Amino acid sequence: MSVTRLxxxxxxxxxxxxPRLPVEADSISPDRFAGLSQEEVATLPxxxxxxxxxxxxxxxxxxxxxxxxxxxxxxIIIEASVDGTSDDLSHVKRIxxxxxxxxxxxxxxxxxxxxxxxxxxxxxxxxxxxxxxxAHMAGGVIRVHGNAGPMLGAGYAGEKRGMRGGVILVDGDAxxxxxxxxxxxxxxxQGDVGEFAGARMIAGSLFAFGALGARAGAGMKRGTIxxxxxxxxxxxxxxxxxxxxxxxxxxxxxxxLRAWGLPVRPEHIEGLYRRxxxxxxxxxxxxxxxxxxx
Amino acid sequence: MQINGVEIEDTFAEAFKMRGARLIITAxxxxxxxxxxxxxxxxxxxxxxxxxxxxxEGPIPAEESPDGRxxxxxxxxxxxxxxxxxxxxxxxxxxxxTCPTTACFNGLExxxxxxxxxxxxxxxxxxxxxxxLEGRRFWRIPVMEGxxxxxxxxxxxxxxxxxxxxxxxxxxxATLAAAEQAVEAMRQVRGVVMPFPGGIVRSGSKxxxxxxxxxxxxxxxxxxxxxxxxxxxxxxxxxSVLEIVIDGLDEEAVGEATRVGVRAACQPGVVRISxxxxxxxxxxxxxxxxxxxx
Lengths: 294, 294
What we know:
The complex is a heterodimer of chains A (294) and B (294).
Chain A: E1 2-8, E2 23-24, H1 30-33, H2 38-42, E3 45-48, E4 51-54, H3 55-58, E5 59-63, E6 74-79, E7 88-89, E8 92-93, E9 103-107, E10 109-110, E11 122-125, E12 141-144, E13 164-170, E14 184-189, E15 205-208, E16 224-227, E17 240-245, H4 248-259, H5 266-270, E18 273-278, E19 286-291
Parallel strand pairs in A: 1-6, 2-8, 6-9, 7-10, 9-11, 11-12, 12-13, 13-14, 14-15, 15-16, 16-19
Antiparallel strand pairs in A: 1-5, 3-4, 17-18, 18-19
Chain B: E1 2-3, E2 6-8, E3 12-26, H1 30-40, H2 47-50, E4 53-60, E5 71-78, H3 81-96, E6 103-106, E7 112-115, H4 117-120, E8 129-133, E9 136-143, E10 146-151, E11 153-169, H5 172-186, E12 192-193, E13 205-206, E14 217-218, E15 240-248, H6 251-265, E16 270-274, E17 285-288, H7 289-292
Parallel strand pairs in B: 2-16, 6-10
Antiparallel strand pairs in B: 1-2, 3-5, 3-6, 3-11, 3-17, 4-5, 7-11, 8-9, 9-10, 11-15, 11-16, 12-15, 13-14
Helix pairs in contact in B: 1-3, 5-6
């Protein structure tokens, strides 16, 4: 695996550029870096407002010798400062957008649209991810060790479908409208999930280990929302209670999550779940499974 | 060659190409998993009359099973993929799905695949739910007890059927005791099943008959009661013969089971170990007893 290290510069001399202002960095992707030398990576474009800068303008670039091998899997490590004094990359947007392979590691908080439309590879964030992480994602894995913002794995306005494959794992909390219009794939949030989780969901699975926010599953057709930490209030009235049972598929899923290192407890695996089906205003074949803590 | 005073005849077992599949059946406890496995492998001794040959490969501890519940591994063998699909549909549909608390998983990375859950799902009458995780698709079929979970497709691979050896004993009791010990030892070998009752067959057959309407008839050469009326293969002092038929997922497993079984069968009261073949003209595989036991 070839490794490229990017460190955000503290200052850019003489060009009126503040490296802490928002930038669109969709060129920071293993697919774009593959086979490029250190110098070539530095010339890739980054949008700074309406100005066209390069990766090298804002970041120091260090690539190992394998960087020019087009067949080597690519890893990109991104840091927020050269001297380690900052962990703020929250203004750097669209990292890993449309990536299909390789690995991106981000040491710090990252900006919006992380891994949007990605179809493969892995992104690991040692910090928080802003809104729209994994939007329209079709494959691969995003792991956020901090919190995730709104619209995690959701679909952009006007689009019929959001996430349609892959896995998003969040160690902290997730913001509102997580998994909105999700079509396939899995989102797992270890903390709380904001309101309207899984709204207009078409299929897929959304797990909340913490509290599931209000109005979860509004407008959902199919798909599964699992509330391991209970519900924030009652389900919407468009969801109907069906039964309390132990779905076998959930055992399989939870064991896989445990194998991935998630804090699945034995009682989650063995326990009962209350099944609510809805949204009856739509197809009504979605479900919210609420872990019965009694 | 002799083992424990038992003669190992210089002959070979002739075996045939088949297709094999492995089901992992889990249930709330070992008893129900085994019940489902035994029903699934019932009436599956000979592919000619039963459509398939099948048997219980062995138990699977809860910690190794896909859903964390006790399981049983089952092997099925047919002559081709079409027959496998037909048999799996019948047996999973009628024997596993109907059995309380069970789930059914694929246990083989196959060379080919047959769709089973993907067809059985229609039993759900529109309320079946698909779940896809790590490339494996499952179907949740609502049933009166709760939900039946079955994998979309099952792998099948080229396999071997008809491995065998014969135990020629002085008495029926001694021969049966030796056969039981052989089967017990062979059950420790993974990748094989002995599809006949208790792993043992008393009515071995030859491929001819005096009756035009019959393709096979009793193996007169090994029937002690007609030894003076036929061209008998039995040495003096042999009054009972039992056969153990072995189906396996690969040549190594069948060979190992034969080796282990023959060694275990060399008990007091056993005169000779032989094997069934057609002179090497019909089967694709030959298991030479003396070579295996070197």
